[in-house]
Each structure stands twice: as structure tokens, then as C-alpha cells.
């Protein structure tokens, strides 16, 4: 595309395509994932995480990677990170997720509180593709415990195409 001044604008990046496969293993159990990298999903949630638990794990993992990487850019590496996720779902079908709460426990000697809080915020507002793929009416709240100090819950604004 050429602008009125004659300069050429860069073209939009091509979409990224992600593929996966599932194989039914009987009852309500499936192996899921690309060849050679599969994991079990159990719709009864007895022998493996169920589909909704897998979704919650994906949100937490995606955002945790962002948090670790954003904090690392400040030359203050994360030494340990865990997360606990809970979700509230509709009582009637479809029993979709309406609310997600994630508590991150982050440890790292030189990590500043403001930097850790900003890393969580950036994950949801800019980087986490899994969270950005959720329905926009899902309420997402995070709580950060940094080096043993438990901070107040924070409502996160999730990225949307309209900003």
C-alpha cells in the first residue's frame, strides 16, 4: 500500500497458524496435542485434567511465561513461580467460565513490587494469547504474592481487538 506522500507502509504480518490433534482413548478420555507432544485430557476429570482445567492451566501458564520474561528484562530474574487458579462457572449448560482468579507466588531477591505488578498487567493487556482468546465478559482477577508479601487482588483488563 502506498501512502499519499509516496512512502510504502509495511504490510500486516501474516496470521500464525497453530494446529493440534486429539485421539479418543475410550470413555471420556483423550490424548491431545501435536504428534510426539501429547497429554491426557479426561472429560470426567478423574485420571487427568478435564477440558476446563486444561483451559485454566493454559491461561496460567501463558501468563506466567510472560511474567517471568518481563521481569527478566529488568535484570531481576524470577527464582520461583507458582500459580493457583480457580474459576466460577455457570450452573446451567453451557457451564462456561464466568470468572477466573489467579494467585501468582513469585520469588526473586531483587524483584521490585511495582515491576512484578506491571509484569502481571502487561501479560493480560498485551501478551497472553490464551487470555486474549477468552470471551470478553469473563472477569479475571489476579493476586500477587511477592517474596512472601501478599498483595491486594487486582482486576485485570484483558486485551481485546478494540483495545
Task: Note the main attributes of this structure.
163 residues; alpha+beta; GMP Synthetase, Chain A, domain 3; 2 domains; five-stranded mixed β-sheet; three-stranded antiparallel β-sheet; 3 helices; 25% helix; globular
Describe the sheet with the most strands.
5 strands, mixed
Task: Using the CA coordinates, give the radius of gyration.
Answer: 19 Å
- Tally of alpha and pi helices: 3
Q: Structural class of the helices, strands and pairings? A: alpha+beta
CATH fold field value of the largest domain: GMP Synthetase, Chain A, domain 3
**Which parts are unreliable, with pLDDT below 50 for 5 consecutive residues or more?**
none
* General shape: globular
- Average pLDDT, to the nearest integer? 93
Q: Quick one: CATH superfamily of the largest domain?
A: K homology (KH) domain
Per DSSP, what share of the residues sits in E-state strands of 2 or more residues?
25-35%
Text of the CATH class of the largest domain:
Alpha Beta
Order of helices and strands: EEEHEEHHEEE
**Got a strand count?**
8
How many domains in all? 2
* Termini separation: 24 Å
Helix share, percent: 25-40%
Task: Write the CATH architecture name of the largest domain.
Answer: 2-Layer Sandwich
Describe what you observe in this structure.
This protein has 163 residues and is an alpha+beta fold. The chain folds into two domains: 20-49, no CATH class; 50-156, GMP Synthetase, Chain A, domain 3, CATH 3.30.300. It is 25% helix and 28% strand. The chain contains three helices and eight strands. It has helices at residues 51-72, 113-127, 129-132, and strands at 22-24, 29-32, 39-42, 80-89, 97-107, 139-146, 149-150, 154-156. Strands 4, 5, 6, 7 and 8 form a five-stranded mixed beta sheet that branches. Strand 4 and strand 5 form a beta hairpin. Helix 1 (51-72) crosses helix 2. It is globular and about 50 Å long. The model has no long low-confidence stretch (mean pLDDT 93).
Amino acid at each position: 500500500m502506498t501512502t499519499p506522500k509516496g512512502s510504502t507502509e509495511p504490510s500486516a504480518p501474516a496470521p500464525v497458524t497453530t494446529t493440534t490433534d486429539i485421539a479418543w482413548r475410550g470413555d471420556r478420555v483423550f490424548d491431545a496435542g501435536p504428534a510426539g507432544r501429547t497429554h491426557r485430557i479426561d472429560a470426567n476429570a478423574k485420571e487427568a485434567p478435564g477440558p476446563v482445567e486444561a483451559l485454566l492451566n493454559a491461561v496460567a501458564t501463558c501468563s506466567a511465561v510472560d511474567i517471568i520474561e518481563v521481569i527478566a528484562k529488568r535484570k531481576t530474574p524470577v527464582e520461583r513461580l507458582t500459580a493457583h487458579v480457580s474459576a466460577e462457572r455457570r450452573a446451567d449448560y453451557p457451564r462456561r467460565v464466568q470468572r477466573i482468579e489467579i494467585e501468582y507466588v513469585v520469588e526473586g531477591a531483587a524483584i521490585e513490587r511495582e515491576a512484578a505488578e506491571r509484569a502481571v498487567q502487561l501479560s493480560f493487556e498485551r501478551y497472553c494469547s490464551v487470555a486474549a482468546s477468552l470471551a470478553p465478559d469473563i472477569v479475571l482477577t489476579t493476586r500477587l504474592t511477592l517474596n512472601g508479601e501478599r498483595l491486594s487482588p487486582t482486576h485485570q483488563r484483558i486485551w481485546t481487538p478494540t483495545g
